[in-house]
Amino acid sequence: MKRLVIALGGNALLQKGQRGTYSEQLSNARRTAKFLADVIEKGYEVVITHGNGPQVGAIMLQNEIAKNEVPPMPLDVANAETQALIGYMIQQSLQNELRKRGINKEVVTLITQVLVNKDDEAFQNPTKFVGPYYTEEEAKKLIREKGWVMKPDPRGGWRRVVPSPDPKDIVEKNIIRDLVDQGFIIITAGGGGIPVIKENDTYKGVEAVIDKDLASALVGKIVRADTLLILTDVEYAMLNFGKPNQTPLKKVKLEEIEEYYRQGHFSPGSMGPKILACIRFIKCGGKRGIIAHLEKSSLALREETGTIVVP
Ligand code: ADP
Ligand code: MG
């Protein structure tokens, strides 16, 4: 039995330079479904996770523009909306692709809540830019009126920053495990999952975002996957990334990659969490953490491309 968690990056649904129309996202989803079906066809049991950066940004912008007509929803709800919208497109595309190939497997998207610690230090130090860009004047008004934390984005303009707490557990973990054991293909923990805290034995959504790669490592642990396959828009994690002496990392042992991680080779918020996800996955019993290009997923499983982290 080969059980695999596949984490889809932003390029699975949006290519560079696209505006994000429905037809663009759907045609990307259909293309992605082919790569997923190639893997499923080889007999892997697959669990799918995905990011949601551009989509959640668009929903927050819609909330902002329409706020005088339609009451805006909080960030945990926006995240749930992206799980549905992205889940739907991948679910339907994959169902169609599997039927076409005569593969008799069912696909379902699960609204997933991810538990974070309410004392997580991230809540004292929000770092993650989300949503639309505002002028300084608008930003100061939002700080006063909504109590948001707003900071100048290095790319220009002011933006809201929210905490990115560490994922600790998945509320629906037993359902996820059962469905995978029964042979269903599930799409779960979309956008890193809806962040919730537990207070007096009650779950409550919080305005934060969870990194999808770290959430995927948690999914891998829960379903006892052998492999965590993180698909993105580069073929390898690099040492000295962006410098003349940059070198791709191929097969690398846990201890070695931990050392590179400590040395700061992987940018926080992009490659950093992918590496950390692989490290955590291996430490809780996973056999391989792979970071590879979306289009090379099958090659990566044969270990012919990609950065492959092993115990
Ligand atoms: P995804 O949507 O797949 O999570 P990200 O943009 O978050 O994509 O992460 C992939 C990006 O990480 C690459 O496009 C690259 O620009 C950046 N990156 C940062 N550090 C490294 C590194 N050391 N090696 C390779 N890519 C890196
Ligand atoms: Mg990312």
Please state the average pLDDT score.
Answer: 96
N- and C-termini, Cα separation: 19 Å
Overall shape? globular
The count of strands amounts to: 17
Percent strand:
15-25%
Which ranges are low-confidence, i.e. pLDDT below 50, for 5 or more consecutive residues? Answer: none
Q: Order of helices and strands, N to C?
A: EHEHHEEEHEEEHEEEHEEEEHHEHE
Give the helix/strand class.
alpha/beta
Structural description of this entry:
The chain is of the alpha/beta class and 311 residues long. It is built from nine helices and 17 strands. Helix 1 (22-41) crosses helix 3, helix 6 runs parallel beside helix 8 and helix 7 (254-263) packs antiparallel against helix 8. It is globular, with a radius of gyration of 19 Å. The two termini are 19 Å apart. The model has no long low-confidence stretch (mean pLDDT 96). The chain binds adenosine-5'-diphosphate and magnesium ion.
Quickly list its features:
binds adenosine-5'-diphosphate; alpha/beta; globular; binds magnesium ion; four-stranded mixed β-sheet; 9 helices; eight-stranded mixed β-sheet; 17 strands; 311 residues
SSE topology sketch:
Elements: E1 3-8, H1 22-41, E2 45-50, H2 53-65, H3 75-100, E3 107-109, E4 113-116, E5 128-134, H4 136-146, E6 149-152, E7 158-162, E8 167-170, H5 173-181, E9 185-187, E10 194-199, E11 202-205, H6 212-222, E12 227-232, E13 238-239, E14 247-248, E15 251-253, H7 254-263, H8 271-283, E16 288-293, H9 297-301, E17 307-310
Parallel strand pairs: 1-2, 1-12, 2-9, 3-9, 4-10, 12-16, 15-17
Antiparallel strand pairs: 4-8, 5-7, 6-7, 10-11, 13-14, 16-17
Helix pairs in contact: 1-3, 2-3, 6-8, 7-8
The protein binds adenosine-5'-diphosphate (ADP) and magnesium ion.
